[in-house]
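REVIEWER CHECKLIST
Item 1: Sequence provided? yes
Item 2: Single chain? yes
Item 3: Sequence as submitted:
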Amino acid sequence: MPARLTLAALILLTAATAQKPTTAARPKPAPAKPAAKPAPKLPATVDAILNSLTLHDRVAQLIMATCYGEGISTNSATYRKYRRLVEDLHIGGFIVANTTGRNGTIRPAEPAAMAILLNRLQRLSYVPLIVGADFERGASMRVDGGTLFPYNMAYGAAADFEADKFEGLTAAREARSLGVHWIFAPVADVNSNPENPIINIRSYGENPNLVAEHVAAYIDGAHSDPDHYVLVTAKHFPGHGDTNIDSHLNLARLDATREHMDAVELKPFEAAIAHGVDSIMTAHMSVPAIEPEDIPATVSPKVLTDLLRNQLKFDGLVITDAMDMQGLAAIYETGEASVKAIQAGADVLLMPPNPERSIQAVLAAVKDGRITKERIDQSVKRILAAKMKVGLLKTRFVNPDNIFDLFGTADADERAQQVSDRAVTLDHNNNSLVPLKDPNHACLVMLLRGRNSSFGEKLVSDFKKRAPQARSLFVDSSLPLAAMEVALGDTSDCSAIVMVAFVNVAAYRGNVALIGDLLPFAKEIVDGKVPTVFIAMGNPYLISLFPKTAASIATFSTTQPSEVSAVKALLGDIAATGHMPVTIPPPESDAATQ
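Item 4: Structure as written out by the authors:
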C-alpha cells in the first residue's frame, strides 16, 4: 500500500565574493528613523472620553474591522488600509483573522509579528483599540505555537469541567500576551441537530444542562487571572445548534417553540450571564418563536432587546456575528444592516464589509431620527467601559519578548493532551478488536477532504513508531473511486483496517460529510472481509454511516493531540473512557446520509 510522499524544497546558498576596500568616499549613513510617537493621552473616565469624541467618532467606536496578524511593511497597501481605518475613520477595534495560502490552506499568524503589528496600530489610535479573535480552542486556532486544545465536544466527552477552566485561563493568558483583549468564545450552542453543518464539534454536546456547565466553567477560568483579564463571549444567540444551514452561506432558521428554547437553547446563555460573561454574539438566523418576521436575530429588536436585554437581564456588550456572512449580507446591504443591528440592540458591528459605509449609514440614521444620539452613547459607553476593564486606558502595548513565557507552555500542552485522551469514546467494539492484537500487520487508511491537508500525519507517524511494518494510505476527495481502489490494493494480509475520517466544521463549506468518492470507498472497505476500526476524528455522527464496522471510535477533534490519543487507544496505552455527548442517529435516518 503506497504511502503519501512529501517533497522537500531545495535551498541554494550563494556566497558573495569578497571585494578589496576602495578609497572611495564612504556613503552617508541612512537617516535614522524617527522615534515612534507615544500613544495619545486620554481623559481618565468613560464619560470624559465620550465627551471628547465627535458623533462620527462615537459611531466609529462601534466598528470592529478585520486585520491579519502578519508582519507587514508600513509601506504595504494592507498596512495603509489599516492605517486609514484607525487614523481617518477612528474605528473602535479589530478582529484578527487568518489568511489563506495559495493552495487553499489556512496560514496561522506568527506570534511576535502579530504583537508588533497590533502595537503599531495601537500607536496610531486616539482611543485604544480593542482587539478580538476567535480563540475557541485557545490562540492556536489563529496563531502558530499556541497550545493545541481539542474542540469543545471533546470536553463534553471527557466531562471535565476543571479542564474547561484551564483552557479558559490559558486562552486568556495567551491572548493578552499577543495584544488580544476579547475572545469570541465559548460556543454556547446546544448541538441537538446531527445535520448542523457549522456548529457540530464546536459545541460541548446536546445536553443543555451539561453545555451550560461547560460554558460557565470556561468563563470562570478565563476570568480567574486578574493580570490577564479578557472579555469572553457566549455565542451564537439565541442558539445555533438546532439548525441545518451554515449562516455563512444563507439565513439559518431555528424551528423551536419558546418553551423548547427556554429548556434547551437559552440555558447555556442564562448560565453565561450568571457567571459574568462580558459579551454575547448574535446569530444570523431567523427565530419565529421570538420574531415572526423572517429576518436574522442580529437585526431583531424582539431578540436582542426584548429577549436578551429585558427578559434575560443582560447588560454587557452585544456584538454581531461577522457582518460579511451571507445570512445577513445577502439580505441587507452593509449600511442598512448596520443601522438595523444597532436599532435591534447591538453595540458592536463585527467585520462589516465596508466600515466607512457602515459609519456613514449610522450617522445618516441619527440625522434622520431612526437612531437617537442617546442610543449611540449607550453602546459607546459599554465599549469604553470594556476597554477600561481590560486595562487599555492604562497600557495598550505588549512586549513581544514576553510572549513565550505564557504561550504554548509545556504544562498547557500536557493538559491539552490529557483532556484529548479522556475524550476518546468507544461506540462499539465487537470481539474486543481494540486494542489491536497485531498492529504490525494493520493497514491504516486516512480519509481526507483536501489534498493539501496535513491531517493524519501525526497519527501514522506515531503508530509506525510502535508498529513499523504497518501499511498506510492517504486518500482525499479529489480522487475518483477507481484510483482509491487501486491505491488500496490487496488487503487480505491486513490483520485489521483502521479507517480514519478527518471531517471538521469550516465556514462556507456547508456540510460535515465525507464528500466525493470517499463515502463509497469507505463502505467498500467496511463491506470487505478484513475487520475494520472506524475512527471519527471530528464529526462523530459519521459513525452512523458504518454500522458493519467491528469497532468505532470518536475523538471529537481533529487536532494533533487527538491524533495522539487515537493511537494510544488503538495500541492499548489508554482506555477509551469518554462518553458520547451527542446521540448517534440510526443508520437508516436522514442524518446518517448527509
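Item 5: Key structural point noted by reviewer: The chain has a mean pLDDT of 92.
Item 6: Recommendation: ____
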